[in-house]
Amino acid sequence: MLSPREIIRNLPSYHPPLAGRDGLRLDFNENVDGCSPSVLACLQSLTTEDLARYPEREPVEADVAKFLGVLNSELLLTNGVDEAIHLLCQAYIDHGPSQDEAIIVVPTYSMYRIYMLAAGAKLVTVPAGPDFQFPADAVLASITQRTRLIAIANPNNPTGMVAPRQTLLAIAQAAPHAAVLVDEAYFEFNGETLLPERENCPNLFIARTFSKAYGLAGLRIGALIGDAGQMRVLRRVSSPYNVNAAALACLPPALADQAYVEQYVTEVRESRMRLETLLHANGIQCWPSHANFVLMRVGPTAADSIAFVEHMRQHGILVRDRSADHACEGCVRITLGTRQNTDRLLTVLQQAIDTRSLIASATGTRP
Questions:
Q1: In 3-state terms, what secondary structure has residue 49?
Q2: Domain definitions of the chain by residue range
Q3: Among residues 33, 25, 26, which one has the least CA distance to residue 264?
Q4: For 269-315, what is each residue's pLDDT tens digit?
Q5: Which residues, other chains included, contact 69 with Cβ-Cβ below 8 Å and sequence gap of 6+?
Q6: CATH assignment, 18-30+259-354
Q7: Is the pTM of this model over 0.90?
Q8: Which of 197, 251, 209 minimizes the C-alpha distance to 56?
Q9: Which residue positions in the chain have pLDDT lower than 70?
Q10: Does CATH number 3.40.640.10 belong to domain 37-256?
């Protein structure tokens, strides 16, 4: 009887709650205003011939490399950041008898764990510090000669916290035998990048996505940047047609409309500040975010967050329960968007607070 590898049989599943997403979607960190109008115009201009041809990735890679200020040979377009993670695992993790190790800091993006385990790695999980601070010393102490991959989301999801630049560089320098991925999926909302440091760290990789600020989550396109020699290795693992024709056609006009991106990012940052201000004013625990979302604790248990998520759904707003994540019991993540979206969010949220039954204070008691 045919059976998959034992590693795959025991692999945890990722089940995003995509069904029934009617209402204001503040649950998936998407761009809630959609993509630039120029992207939609590009989609509408595609012909049957465009869709009948195999897509050419390299010309668009050259455009993206120029935009990011890197060499063409240092960049690979990927099917979202997910594929970038998968390629790194396939290229650098060996599931042989010695069992390579891979390090993540929890809580973090779930797909790091899944791809690392699927590749056969021994997963080393380092808990975040108090208030989800990045545990630099613990990560450095976890590095061994068997470490082959370290993945760090910066800003982190679901906490929104950031690790200092010098800390990330110290980790890369401490593990020259390991691939170090710094996932900058939320770069636009934070503004800090390690791209200028890549020349000094040949084992450093940086991932970007066009799903968040650019509003292209449905087209699935991201970028992985690293040392040219290492990127040649990753191109061997990658499918030559990994990014579809529609995504490749739409990315250049999306990059060209920086006014749209900048306006959206400005509104998200303003909305983030408004939400954090409301939560602080009501004594509700949340963490300083550098992304397009805020993590808040609505109560001490998963039952509290589940009840809150359902309450918001009944009022037409979708938010994400994060109770299953390490140290996130009773936590909910809320995506931020436009001013209009935030007006509606804050009105419903304040009503929930005023009921004095759905949200706990920072001290763990009901307001």
A1: helix
A2: 18-30+259-354, 37-256
A3: 33
A4: 999 999 999 999 999 999 999 999 999 999 999 999 999 999 999 99
A5: 195
A6: 3.90.1150.10
A7: yes
A8: 251
A9: 17-20, 356-358, 360-367
A10: yes
